[in-house]
Design a protein that fits this description.
mainly alpha
């Protein structure tokens, strides 16, 4: 089978769209609404947590919906792309038509609902696609998919900063560019949504009754939490703890570009040595690299850039190997996979809720002020560093322990 007929680049482009609507929005949206409209950190954290509570019900139901419309998946995905593009424009490019906090909540509800629906369909389709590829198809597809996702994160993370140099409203232009990407990604994947020959839905029960699937969902939950914590606090850490305003964009680019470059390497190593062994090595390296962040102070942005290179490279393993392992398991126990990835989407986003509802109010109660090192006491900056770097390292240790005692021989 040729690369052209496999159409794997289309999966990269669609993954880039989804990635641009994920972590970068958690990075940019709270700070944008704090700086532009004066919304409090605690209020934003509460709204983000409320949205994740909605996902407790919504993501599994969206998995059911994705399964119900799977024979019309191309049309359903096109509608989802239109919703996510329009909602992003409303979030960043249109002045709030309601009180800013309410507008923030409503537009993000649309963004994240469309994000969930598209993600579930995309990864469910990937189970079928990977099974039809030569060799270790799920790992091959994961390399293309997650490399595209990481490049999408890179662009989305730095685009508002880069656009600020040329435009007065960089976030508005970012939102318009995202809408254009949604159109392009939908067009590129238009012929990939066939479910001909796919087995009937097995429902949530098969997934939840399977011990290995449950363990993989738990590992995904714990392992995603460190990235959620650090992403939520990244801009505040660089601006205030490192006292390096203006360096946020380049440092984000270094981090996610390192992940994108490393993702194919981790996939190749997993094919050779096994995904579990490779993933544990990467997770240990992540702790060693990111733990050094606790030693940094004002002006240490160059050292932090090196840490971003190392920790970003290890993130490539997390984002490539865990979804591939879960997809392999779904191919065995639930080939339709929509419900399984509905649960996967839920646990992945729940970590971002944990970060928002716990960390932002803690910082606000400690007297943290967005704006730079001079606005905060040494004690407040020390707390920021502990939350940003210490908490993720502890969570990563827990994820390693869970993975180490998990038997993946049945995957």
């Amino acid at each position: 089978m040729t690369q052209a007929s496999e159409r794997l680049p289309a999966y990269s482009l669609f993954a880039a769209l989804l990635a641009a609507a994920g972590l970068p929005i958690y990075i940019h949206a709270p700070k944008f609404y704090v700086d532009e409209y004066g919304v409090s950190l605690a209020a934003l954290g509460a709204v983000l947590f409320g949205l994740r509570l909605l996902d407790v019900v919504q993501d599994p139901l969206l998995g059911k919906l994705a399964e119900r419309v799977r024979d019309r998946r191309a049309g359903a995905v096109a509608i989802g792309c239109a919703v996510i593009g329009g909602a992003m424009v409303a979030l960043f490019a249109i002045p709030p038509l309601l009180p800013p906090l309410v507008w923030f909540g409503l537009t993000l509800t649309l963004v994240f609902s469309a994000f969930s629906f598209l993600t579930i369909n995309f990864y469910a389709q990937g189970v079928m696609k990977g099974a039809g590829l030569a060799g270790k198809g799920h790992l091959r597809l994961a390399r293309w998919r997650e490399s595209g996702a990481l490049l999408g994160v890179c662009v989305a993370a730095v685009a508002p900063v880069a656009l600020a140099a040329a435009f007065e409203a960089p976030f508005a232009w970012f939102a318009l560019g995202f809408a254009g990407l949604a159109v392009g990604a939908a067009y590129a994947m238009r012929s990939e949504w066939s479910t001909a020959g796919l087995a009937a839905s097995t429902g949530f029960g098969v997934v939840l009754r399977d011990g290995l699937a449950r363990r993989l969902l738990l590992i995904a939950l714990v392992n995603a939490a460190p990235v959620a914590v650090s992403s939520t606090l990244f801009l505040f850490f660089v601006e205030s703890k490192l006292d390096a305003p203006g360096y946020e964009g380049p440092l984000l680019l270094v981090f996610f570009l390192s992940a994108a470059v490393a993702a194919p390497f981790w996939g190749t190593m997993a094919e050779r040595f096994g995904p579990k062994r490779v993933l544990i090595v990467a997770m240990v390296l992540a702790i060693c690299a990111f733990g050094l962040t606790l030693t940094l102070g004002p002006g240490d942005w160059a050292l932090f850039a090196l840490i971003c290179v190392a920790s970003g490279a290890t993130l490539g393993a997390d984002l490539t190997l865990l979804p591939a392992i879960f997809a392999d398991r779904m191919a065995r126990i639930s080939p339709s996979a929509a419900e399984g990835f509905g649960l996967w989407s839920f646990v992945s986003k729940l970590t971002l809720a944990f970060a928002a509802v716990t960390l932002l109010p803690v910082l606000e109660r400690a007297g943290f002020q967005s704006g730079g090192a001079s606005e905060n006491t040494p004690e407040t900056l020390a707390l920021l560093a502990l939350l940003y770097a210490g908490v993720p390292c502890v969570l990563k240790v827990v994820a390693i322990a869970l993975l180490a005692v998990t038997d993946l021989s049945e995957v």
